[in-house]
């Protein structure tokens, strides 16, 4: 396909759904070959079919990113497909559950799981994929962190700390990649409604009496959960657009940056 990313191949971890799937659509539309990744083979196959029908060159890798060994296995399989020019470290989440865990409810074991999935797997993936980008003199490493990395809250402390580590990782990696033609940046979403989050927000809406239609519930969620300056929740395309921005050749003067796409929620 033609486009700003024609001739580049992008591996997007966690692209079987949500923000990662939308990122695959945006990068594919910009001409990149896409390597999809997820744990659920059926979801990955459905995405693969969707992209192929749109004329995108696409392949996929299945596997968990629960620890560094698992990440190395996914990376090695992806590299067998071909060279990776753009690595989007997107997969992640919280082990302490559902976004509601209070500080003392999040166990040390849950912190461990969250750090392995969000931080250590990302480190291992980067160790496997990025040296070849350096040798070729061109590459993009883009992390999906979170706006709560900059926004002190006491719930899901494991997740907040892990995402803060992802931001730190992004900046130190950018410094390590000085002068190589490979950039490292992070995008930090605010509350972004994916298929998976919508059900959770609807159940919170029922609990808090936020209304009966999705429009009412979404408006109340945007105002009450993570109040922002823009009166709506985020959409996967808001985040995919920012990831594409960092991936494009024209962004070669931008590295070590952390771009919050959160409607103005975290202003620090
Ligand atoms: N949505 C938000 O409001 C929001 C806000 C800030 C940051 N983020 C970050 O954005 C990223 C994507 O989130 P999302 O909301 O789009 O999530 P999602 O819709 O639940 O999708 C998560 C994707 O990551 C994969 N995944 C999750 N944990 C994995 C693991 N341990 N090993 C391998 N694959 C794993 C899933 O694969 P399978 O389903 O195939 O298993 C799926 O493809 C995450 O890093 C999240 O922390 C999201």
Give a quick summary of the entry.
This protein has eight helices and seven strands, in the order βαβαβαβαβαβαααβ.
Describe, in plain words, how this protein is organized in 3D.
The model has no long low-confidence stretch (mean pLDDT 95). The protein folds into 2 domains: 9-192 and 234-261, Rossmann fold (3-Layer(aba) Sandwich), CATH 3.40.50; 193-233, no CATH class. The chain is globular. The longest helix is centred in the middle third of the chain and has 29 residues, at 108-136. The chain has 8 helices and 7 strands. Helix 2 (41-53) links the parallel strand 2 (33-38) and strand 3 (58-62). It has a 7-stranded parallel beta sheet with strand order 3-2-1-4-5-6-7, with helices on both faces. 47% of the residues lie in helices and 14% in strands. It has 268 residues and is of the alpha/beta class. Bound molecules: NADP nicotinamide-adenine-dinucleotide phosphate.
What is the CA–CA distance across the termini? 40 Å
Q: Helix/strand-derived class?
A: alpha/beta
Widest sheet: strand ordering: 3-2-1-4-5-6-7
> What are the segments in which pLDDT stays under 50 over at least 5 consecutive residues?
none
Helix count equals 8
Largest sheet: 7 strands, parallel
Q: What's the CATH first level of the largest domain? A: Alpha Beta
CATH topology value of the largest domain: Rossmann fold
Percentage of residues assigned to helices: 40-55%
Count of individual beta strands: 7
Bound molecules: NADP nicotinamide-adenine-dinucleotide phosphate
Radius of gyration: 18 Å
């Amino acid at each position: 396909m033609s486009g700003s990313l024609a001739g580049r191949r992008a591996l997007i971890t966690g692209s079987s759904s949500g923000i990662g799937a939308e990122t695959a659509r945006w990068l594919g539309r910009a001409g990149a070959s896409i390597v999809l990744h997820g744990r659920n083979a059926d979801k990955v196959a459905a995405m693969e079919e969707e992209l192929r029908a749109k004329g995108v060159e696409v392949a996929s890798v299945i596997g968990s990113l629960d620890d560094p060994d698992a990440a190395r296995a996914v990376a090695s399989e992806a590299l067998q497909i071909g060279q990776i020019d753009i690595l989007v470290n997107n997969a992640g989440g919280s082990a302490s559950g559902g976004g509601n865990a209070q500080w003392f409810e999040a166990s040390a074991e849950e912190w461990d799981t969250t750090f392995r999935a969000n931080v250590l797997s990302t480190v291992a993936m980067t160790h496997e994929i990025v040296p070849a980008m350096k040798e070729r003199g061109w590459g993009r490493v883009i992390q999906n962190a979170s706006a709560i990395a900059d926004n002190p809250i006491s719930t899901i402390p494991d997740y907040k700390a892990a995402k803060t580590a992802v931001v730190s990782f992004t900046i130190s990696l950018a410094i390590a990649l000085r002068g190589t033609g490979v950039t490292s940046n992070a995008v930090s979403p605010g509350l972004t409604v994916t298929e998976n989050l919508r059900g959770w927000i609807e159940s919170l809406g029922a609990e808090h009496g936020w209304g009966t239609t999705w429009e009412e519930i979404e408006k109340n969620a945007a105002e009450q959960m993570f109040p922002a300056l823009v009166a709506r929740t985020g959409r996967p395309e808001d985040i995919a657009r920012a990831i594409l921005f960092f991936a494009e050749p024209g962004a070669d003067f931008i590295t070590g940056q952390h771009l919050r796409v959160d409607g103005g929620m975290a202003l620090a």
